[in-house]
Structure formats: C-alpha cells, structure tokens
Design goal:
Number of helices: 18
Shape: elongated
Strand order of the largest sheet: 7-6-5-8-9-11-10
Number of strands: 11
Strand content: 5-15%
Distance between the termini: 11 Å
Structural class: alpha/beta
Radius of gyration: 23 Å
Length: about 425
C-alpha cells in the first residue's frame, strides 16, 4: 500500500475500526398470544405491506397492537399508529424514509441487515415491476433538473450544509467518494489516499502535465495530484463552500501556485489539458447532458491525453430511489454502462478500461457510518434528531445498495479515438 499523505499520517487509527453502526437491540421472539394482538384489519394491512416488499423475513408491527412476520425475524419494524401505516402504504419507497426520519417508524435489529433483506426480496419480484417503473419514470417530470441554474440549486441542497458537518465523518481527506482498499483491513484514510493514487496511476500522470478536474469536491484529489505527481490542476466546482475550503487548504499546504480552483460549472471549462478527470460528479449531470460532458472532455483533450470518470451506477437503467432523490440528492441519477456510453460515442472517445468497485464503496460507507454515529450527538446539536435519523438511513441504505448489487461503482478510463498513447497492459496500476 502506498504511504499516506504526511498531513494524514497521524489520523489513521481513529478511522480504523468498522463497528456495528446501527447496534440496535435485536428483536426477541414473541409468544403466539402476542402475535394475535390487534385488529384483523391491522394484521391485513401489515401483511399487505410485507407482501409488497417481497415477503422478507421481517416482523412488522403497530405499536402495542398487531404484528405479522416470522417467529425469528431479521429485524422488527414498528409503526407508531395505524394512520402512519395507511399513510405509508400509499407510497412506500418515498414515505418510509420520511416516517423513519420523523420517528414514526422504529427499528429493532441491525438497520443495514434490514435494508439488505428488503433489497434482496425486492430483486426477486423486480422483473414484473420493472417495465411499469420505467414507464412511470418517463411519464413523471423530474422535479430537480440539471440545467445550469438547476445544478447549482441541487448541489447547494446537499453540499452547502456546512463543511463542519462533513468534517465530522469524512475524515481528514474530506473525500466524499468511494475509497479503494488494497486490503480489506485498510483504514478509511489509507483507502482514500490509495483511491487517489489508483486514479492517478490510471491516468498515468507525469510531472509537468496539466489536468482539468470536473467536480472537485473539497479539492483533495487536486492537491494529491499536484503534490505527488507534479502536475498543474484546474479544478471546477459549483459548491461555494467547498471551493472556499479547498482554496484555504491548498494555501496552507503550499499548493496554491499549482492548483486553480474555479467556482463554475463543468460546461464552462475551456482550454486543453493532458488529462481530464471527474470523480463523483456524473451522478449529478443528468442523462440529457451526457453528450455535453463528453464534448467538454473531447475538447479538453484535443485528440490526445487520457480521461477518467468515476461514478455510482446500476447494471440496468433505473431512477434513483425516490426518497434519496427528494431528501438527499436532488437531481441525482446513477447510470448504467449503456447510458454512460452516451458520453463517449458521439465524440469517438475510446473506452480503455472499466473497473467495478462496489464492494469498496460498501466498506467506505461502513466507515462513514461508524464515524457519523460516533459524532451523532454533535450532529444533533448542529441540526436536530430528524436530520440524524435521515442521514443514518441514507448511509445505511447506501451500504445495502452496494452489498446487494442494487448499486455499482464504475471507473472508466478513456482516450480520444485517434490516440495511440494507451497502455499495453494494466501492469502500471499495480507496480511502482
């Protein structure tokens, strides 16, 4: 494993353990008489909900009332009232998250295991619903469009809620993208630095080259490229808070003369560079804008050089989970590989390498969730209990998405079609 950044070396131990972040009491088996409580109508409603989820091994209950499910469930989900259950049944994918955030739904057992169970059960019945879901997704106008103005609003919703919040659980790298674990036992900080090296090796960066980064987050990849690989970087981002943070950090580390952080949209990138990189931005671009992004990359490379795009994705086209899209990531969309081809095909960009790191993202999220839970009291003070529960569900649900294969993480390396400056083998990724 590569040595970590000097400024991060003292912080590894605090991010090392991956504890059970949702260590809630396991549901104890109940006697038969307890299962007979509640009205027949309540038991029918609970059974209907369980069946709609694909009949996972869960117990569903109304507080001090009816319950349905196996004698030894993976977890127990309790609704505070029949009215909550009725309200939720009208739109389970959207309303469960709101009910959990509001405390109207409680969970006994491991939250990640519960969600994994639901996702696995849902995959068994997904085929019969898929065509309907696609028609609905096409028919319903998405409320968060990725126009120039819309993208800025969407990014503000998620990223401009305070750098202090993200500093609590992202660790000192401030990398809010999938890490790369050369060994499963690596710490979060080691894995994030290893991810940055993995990206740089794929781009085959050389001292003196120029790099443009589309969507730079808090700017740590740009700093890593400049410091470790001796390149000059122009990094674009439309989050004001992130750009301000990145400029201050680069100045403290003596890198301001090698990195230009530009507060602007990727569509306004100009100039030519040796490498184009985008890590964790494609999810916010929107399908209609993929050819535009490809045009920007093609123009930046000018018939030479290398590019890399790193993005959450899916095996087949499907909209983002509706509660996540509404409450967490407005305008977000994880593309399939076929959809990602719309970036490359119109501009004759050659795909050179595709790697799927979904289990690495699951491990990254476990680390984030453990740190988030450790800082939950401070988060509660900064926001409120609803915010804590909302983000706990988002992080736990994301772990389950990657462990069950509902979500993927793709890294795609590409180059202009006429360029022969491409590696003969993949040995450069694993040898120094």
């Amino acid at each position: 494993m590569n040595a970590c950044e000097p400024s991060l070396a003292k912080t590894h131990q605090r991010a090392a353990p991956v504890t059970a972040p949702t260590a809630l009491p396991s549901p104890a088996p109940l006697p038969a008489q307890a299962r007979s409580k509640g009205s027949r109508a309540d038991r029918w409603l609970l059974a209907r909900l369980l069946a709609s989820l694909g009949s996972p091994p869960l117990e569903l209950a109304i507080r001090e009332g009816a319950r349905v499910g196996p004698a030894t469930p993976v977890a127990r989900v309790t609704f505070d009232s029949r009215s909550t259950l009725l309200w939720l049944l009208a739109d389970v994918p959207l309303r469960f998250g709101d009910a959990y955030s509001d405390g109207a739904v409680t969970v006994e057992g491991d939250l990640i295991a519960l969600l994994e169970t639901v996702y696995h059960a849902g995959r068994r019945t997904a085929g019969e619903r898929r065509s309907i879901a696609r028609r609905v997704a096409r028919a319903v106008k998405r409320p968060h469009l990725n126009t120039l103005a819309g993208s800025r609003e969407n990014i503000h919703h998620h990223y401009d809620i305070g750098n202090a919040f993200y500093e609590l659980w992202l660790g000192p790298t401030m990398a809010y993208t999938c890490a790369y674990y050369p060994q499963p036992t690596a710490t979060l900080d080691e894995a994030q630095v290893a991810k940055m090296d993995h990206v740089c090796r794929k781009l085959r960066l050389k001292p003196g080259e120029s790099v443009v980064e589309a969507g730079c987050g808090w700017g740590m990849l740009a700093m890593h490229m400049a410091r470790r690989y001796g390149v000059r970087v122009r990094a674009f981002n439309i989050s004001h808070e992130q750009i301000v943070w990145a400029r201050k950090r680069a100045a403290r580390e003596g890198l301001a003369d090698r990195i230009e952080y530009v507060e602007d949209d990727y569509r306004n990138i100009s100039g030519q560079y040796d490498a184009f990189v985008s890590v964790g931005m494609l999810e916010h671009v929107g399908l209609k804008n993929y050819p535009t992004l490809g045009g920007v990359a093609s123009r930046c490379l000018g018939g030479r050089g290398r590019g890399l795009i790193h993005s959450i994705g899916r095996n087949r086209p499907a909209p983002l989970q509706p509660w996540i899209e509404k409450r967490i990531f407005p305008g977000g969309y994880p593309p399939s590989p076929g959809e990602m081809s719309r970036i490359f095909e119109p501009w004759d960009l050659s795909i050179l390498d595709v790697e799927n790191l979904r289990l690495h993202y699951a491990q990254t999220l476990r680390h984030w969730l453990a740190l988030f839970e450790g800082a939950s009291e401070r988060v509660r003070t900064m926001f409120d209990e609803r915010f804590v529960r909302m983000w706990r569900l988002y992080l736990a649900g994301s772990v389950a998405g990657f462990t069950t294969g509902s979500l993927q993480l793709f890294q795609i390396v590409f180059a202009p079609g006429e360029s022969n400056d491409i590696p003969w083998t993949r040995a450069h990724l694993y040898t120094r």
